[in-house]
Design goal:
oxidoreductase activity, alpha+beta, Nitroreductase, NADH Oxidase, oxidoreductase, 203 residues, Nitroreductase-like, 35% helix, 8 helices
Length: 203
């Protein structure tokens, strides 16, 4: 067993209750195998996103993606935070997520961001099924991304995503990032966010 395979095993969720295997196995790596992510792979991921639930079936999600070596990839890279740029260069595909802010009637779609999240949840599980890792990033200058890609008014860039097959070389990361890559996964206990009958969190 090589180092990357061991990391993958170590990242399997130490869940308190039984979980679907693909959810248990999912994690957000900062290294990726150099096996190409193909256009067909991306179409399968977008098909999963396409079939996500959304308010009134408005499907407000939008995506901009680019393969490494293309101009669009460099444009997305340049919108990322310095920290994310340090490792995201390992990803074969970079993507920006966005949502349409208004309903078909021109009113604010309060649920659009929620629906974008649902579509990305679908995509993430589909990717896991395919052996593809998806690393979601909040560290993106969305205003710069809107400008670079000439996103029209009424649409909002939300996050960036690094996409690639699990694998790669740990040595491609700095010592600090190697340590983070191998760190144990942690989650809050259910009682801290799931409340029966009444709201229980005080601050």
């Amino acid at each position: 067993m090589n180092e990357i395979e061991q990391i993958a095993l170590d990242k399997i969720a130490n869940n308190d209750h039984e979980l679907y295997a693909l959810i248990k196995q999912r994690y957000s790596p900062r290294i990726f195998d150099q096996k190409p992510v193909t256009e067909d792979d991306m179409k399968k991921l977008f098909e999963a996103a396409r079939w996500a639930a959304s308010c009134y079936n408005w499907q407000p999600w939008r995506f901009i993606y680019a393969f490494k070596g293309n101009e669009g990839y460099d444009k997305i890279m340049n919108t990322l935070s310095d920290f994310n740029q340090e490792w995201a260069k390992n990803a074969p595909v970079l993507m920006l997520t966005a949502y349409k802010e208004k309903t078909p009637e021109g009113e604010e779609n309060f649920h659009a961001l929620h629906d974008l999240g649902l579509s990305m949840g679908n995509m993430t599980v589909q990717a896991q099924y395919m052996g593809i890792a998806i690393h979601h990033m909040a560290g993106v200058d969305w205003k710069k991304a809107q400008e670079v890609f000439d996103v029209p008014k009424g649409y909002h860039i939300s996050t960036a995503v690094a996409i690639g097959y699990y694998g790669g070389e740990l040595e491609n990361l700095s010592d600090e990032l190697q340590e983070q890559e191998q760190a144990e996964r942690e989650r809050k206990p259910q009682k801290s966010f799931a409340f029966e009958n009444e709201w229980k969190e005080k601050d």
